[in-house]
Write a structure and sequence with these properties.
about 950 residues, mainly beta, 22-stranded antiparallel barrel, 8 helices, globular
């Protein structure tokens, strides 16, 4: 669809909203059970622990909580499945102020994958049980929305105003029989606030290693038969320079780790003087050459002693960000003609990052042929290369990265009553997401092979410090634009068919049509003529046609309860999905809820789930590169030699080209649980859930590919993805020339030649290509299977002591088994509690106290220990495996709401002060070869531990 066409649709959507507001409503009060209009039961005061849902399944009991996430039938809970309901009051009390962290902080949640913390604040997702962002379905008010991104297409929960959230419903169980793709590990549904009369304005300030300010406003109005809610927010934060965090600096020798400022012939960041590379030998360059070619003696005196700086001082860990979000939700009841809800969502996010990452403009290799006046004789034969720091020598040049993304969604729900309590629903929506995922300057390394040529006229001088006209040729740009669209239409009929002694039998039948469109274009000026050129373009779409049905059957209920069967509910669901690009899939699910006594509920479910490859994953032209990377080599295998003996690493060509089509992932999901609420201790509730996921044909890149050569056992796992390709004795390094097809490449092992012809895929570097030992296939593939099973425990207690209300809440997850393989049919290996995987033991426990105007809670967050078996090699010796200790942090939240007369200026005011990790406990030091930040190894496991330290937030909210 064209941009112009999209604009016309957006205009029509706005007119539709206006027309709805102009129609007078009927006198009938709104009671939209399909969207859980009834007030939810309060979730745990910590706002994050899990509690299994025990809401009644009979639609006749409308005065109690009805959770609708996880089922297509209104008025019933998802039978047999464990659910979590985080209410708004508990969200406020948690101190968490970004939507994604509400999930990642849950024991069942995960910080693996895409989160604000490990994407530098650019974007986030949701990830249950560490099974991946795409294995958890994200909904807004029960709707799918358009995805964001270029390579990783996922919806971002942080695109809505925080004040728009009424509650969050989480189903920690497979649900593809209801929703189709993605609902493997579970479903996360952000429910928007419903119309009310009034307004609320909130300001918060957060201080940690960055400063963040946010203004959030919500306005509501109700009228006869309808209402509207408008929520808007602005949020902005300062950037964090990576080098200000000691565990993220290039030189980790203070922790016993690598000093990665220089590894072999690969610089982290050279100083303004530059350096000279001849073969595998590094020479420093004297200061104040002022453009003069150094003498041989001057260079030899600095052999092995180049001037170094630290890339982490010129790159962001967390970007400066500004975000503007709006949600408008309007409802109107038309009496016998039904009711309609329209929701509009808009988000604009901009990110400004220092540097392009991975040393861009810090280490530019300028080829110096023997015919050049800049050639230093007497150091060897063949060409030389000067490593030049463009950034430090051109301080006035704008080298920062500026990304942006605009996301729009319009959602609709129309309900019309039929016979009895049967109801027709038409729902769906459309959305677009457009932005520049990578908008940055980038060195034009293609020109570095000729920029310092055989004559001095109008040439770049690599020995001249400071600005010079010839350096302009090095400056280039790289732009990666993306455009995503989604159109969805879902009609269904649901309601009761007939009554059994145990209650009404209810069904839902319907279909769904979804169309997604994806376009990606990558342009650069990295060519000899410095003209803007498109080197990668993709435009593709997909149609999905679905049919589904679900039945709820109450066998025993209040009217026919007998001893041992106070209640027994059964459910069954099935969904058929046909994809236009890879075939069809059929997925059933069955659930059972049984109450043998009033205090005890038992539940279980079994179903199959699947995940379709995203359009970015399905396209062959979205991504493809071949980069030289040093990885640990402890094989002691002469056919795969060590390239750099000082740190025990070998130079490997890591390829992300994919040449085979993908198929969908599939999973079998089983759960069995119990909830116990003893009547003799009012307010107390225990819960336990056993779950098991058998996840096959996983779509992923190689997990922890940097360990492929780290041990014989690991090499056995990765052997099918590694091509042994040592360079011949006559190899002549051509990597610094940046010009595929030059005679140097003819001396290479032929295995590398297919990667030289793809535009932009084989960038020049200071690495010596003649040290390459092989090719590692790191493309996105269907990679084997994951088996995970575990236990979720919950404890909730709330008691009125007359003088105060006390609450105790806890949630704990223990993964019992985690096994993987990398190829279908290959042996499974034990991945439990090893670095790079979800930690098996995670918990959150809180104690709350409410007295009058004061409300406070203290919470403990526990992350268990695990094995770091991917330690680096330092000075030729591999560090021993490390048992990473458990990490416990504490959160404190205090709020004050004055109990004053409504005419007081302080009426409706709340002051909240929160401190996450208020003891400022540092995470464990974890020296490893897996975690990198801007291409640098780290001394902390960023996928498991939070490096932000103490996070202080002050918030003032005023209701009008």
């Amino acid at each position: 669809m064209s941009i112009k066409g999209s604009s016309m649709i957006w205009g029509a959507s706005v007119l539709a909203v206006v027309s709805v507001l102009a129609v007078p409503g009927a006198a009938r009060a709104q009671a939209d059970a399909a969207r859980s209009e009834t007030p939810p039961v309060a979730a745990p005061s910590a706002g994050l622990p899990a509690s299994a849902n025990t809401a009644p399944a009979d639609a006749e009991q409308q005065n109690r909580e009805i959770v609708v996430t996880g089922t297509a039938i209104r008025g019933v809970a998802p039978v047999g499945s464990a659910t979590v309901n985080i209410g708004r009051e508990n969200i406020v009390q948690s101190g968490v102020r970004d939507a994604g962290s509400l999930i990642s902080n849950m024991p069942q949640g995960s910080s693996q994958g895409t989160t604000l913390a490990n994407t530098g604040g650019r974007s986030g997702g949701v990830n249950l049980r560490g099974l991946g962002n795409n294995a958890t379905l994200l909904l807004f008010d029960g709707h799918r929305t358009v995805t964001q991104g270029v390579q990783n297409l996922i919806p971002d929960p942080n695109t809505i105003p925080f004040g728009a959230i009424e509650r969050v419903e989480v189903v920690t169980d497979g649900a593809s029989a209801v929703y189709g793709s993605d609902a493997v590990a579970g479903v996360v549904n952000y429910i928007f606030r419903r119309p009310f009369n009034g307004a609320e304005l909130t300001y918060h300030y957060t201080h940690t290693i960055y400063d963040e300010q946010a203004v959030d406003g919500v306005f509501g109005r109700k009228w006869d038969g309808g209402g509207i809610v408008v929520a808007a927010s602005y949020k902005g934060n300062t950037p964090v320079i990576q080098g200000t965090i000691p565990q993220l600096r290039a030189d980790l020798s203070r922790y016993g780790g690598l000093d990665s400022r220089l590894q072999g012939t690969v610089f982290n960041s050279v100083g303004p003087n530059g350096a000279l590379i001849v073969g595998n030998t590094i020479y420093g360059l004297p200061a104040n050459l002022n453009g003069r070619t150094p003498t041989t003696a001057e260079v030899l005196a600095l052999k092995g002693n180049p001037q170094l700086t630290d890339l982490s001082d010129y790159a962001d860990y967390y970007t400066g960000r500004a975000q503007y979000s709006v949600v408008v939700r309007a409802q109107q009841d038309f009496g016998t003609y039904g009711d309609l809800t329209l929701t509009g969502m808009f988000n604009r996010r901009t990110n400004d990052a220092i540097g392009g990452g991975d040393g861009a403009f810090q280490n530019i290799a300028v080829a110096i042929p023997s015919t050049s006046p800049y050639y230093v004789a007497g150091l060897g034969t063949g060409s030389e290369s000067v490593v030049y720091n463009f950034r430090l020598n051109n301080p006035g040049r704008a080298l920062d990265r500026h990304d942006f993304e605009n996301t729009r969604n319009v959602l609709f729900d129309y309900h019309l009553g039929l016979v009895g309590d049967l109801r027709f629903t038409a729902s769906g929506g459309m959305g677009t997401s457009t932005g520049c995922a990578v908008c940055q300057p980038q060195p034009n390394t293609i020109l570095t092979s000729t920029i310092a040529g055989p004559t001095t006229a109008s040439l770049f001088n690599p020995y001249q410090q400071g600005t010079q006209a010839g350096a302009n040729g090095i400056f280039g740009v790289f732009i990666q634009n993306s455009h995503n669209e989604m159109y969805d239409f879902l009609p269904k009929i649901d309601g009761s068919l007939f009554r059994l002694p145990g209650g009404k039998v209810r069904i839902a039948i319907g279909g769904e049509w979804t169309r997604t469109y994806y376009q990606q274009e990558s342009d650069y000026t990295l060519n000899p003529t410095t003209t803007l050129t498109t080197f990668r373009y993709t435009s593709t779409h997909r149609n999905v046609y679905s049919l589904f049905g679900e039945a709820y059957v109450p066998i025993f209920g209040p009217d026919n309860a007998i001893p041992g069967f106070r209640r027994l509910d059964l459910s069954g669901a099935v969904r058929y999905d046909k994809y236009s690009d890879f075939g069809s899939t059929l997925n059933p699910k069955f659930g059972l809820t049984w109450k043998p006594i009033d205090d005890l509920q038992l539940r279980g479910s079994y179903g199959t789930s699947f995940r379709a490859p995203t359009l970015a994953e399905s396209s062959f032209n979205v991504v493809g590169a071949a980069n030289r990377t040093f990885i640990a080599n402890n094989l002691n295998d002469p056919t795969i030699p060590v390239s750099n003996t000082s740190n025990g690493t070998s130079l490997v060509l890591v390829s992300t080209f994919r040449f085979t089509p993908l198929k969908p992932e599939r999973a079998n999901v089983f759960s069995l649980g119990a909830d116990y609420a003893p009547h003799y201790i009012p307010g107390l509730k225990f819960g336990v859930t056993f779950y098991s996921v058998n996840y096959r044909d996983r779509i992923a890149t190689l997990p922890n590919s940097a360990i492929a050569l780290s041990s014989p056992a690991n090499y056995a796992l990765y052997k099918n993805f590694f091509t042994v390709a040592p360079q011949p004795a006559g190899c002549v390094n051509g990597s610094v020339n940046g010009n595929p097809g030059t005679p140097q490449y003819a001396t290479y092992n032929p295995a590398y030649l297919p990667y030289l012809n793809a535009p932009g895929s084989y960038p020049p570097t200071t690495a010596n290509d003649c040290q390459l030992v092989g090719i590692l296939n790191a493309a996105t593939l269907n990679l084997g299977r994951v088996e995970q099973s575990g236990l979720d425990f919950t404890l909730n207690y709330r008691h009125d002591l007359n003088f105060a209300i006390v609450s105790v809440d806890g949630a704990f997850t223990d993964i019992l088994k985690l096994k993987r393989n990398l190829l279908p049919g290959a042996p499974m290996y034990d991945a439990l509690d090893t670095i790079g995987e979800q930690v098996s033991k995670r918990g959150r426990f809180s104690l709350g106290l409410e007295k009058g105007a004061f409300n406070g809670n203290i919470a403990a967050n526990y992350i268990g220990g695990y094995l770091n078996n991917q330690t680096p090699t330092v000075n030729g010796v591999k560090l021993p495996n490390q048992n990473v200790p458990a990490w416990t942090t504490f959160d404190l939240n205090l709020s004050f709401t004055p109990k004053v007369d409504g005419t007081s200026m302080f009426a409706g005011t709340r002051l909240t002060i929160s401190a996450r990790n208020f003891t400022d406990k540092a995470p464990p030091i974890v020296l490893n070869s897996l975690n990198t930040q801007n291409g640098l190894p780290t001394a902390v496991d960023l996928n498991t531990h939070n490096i932000l330290g103490r996070i202080l937030t002050v918030e003032v909210s005023k209701k009008f």
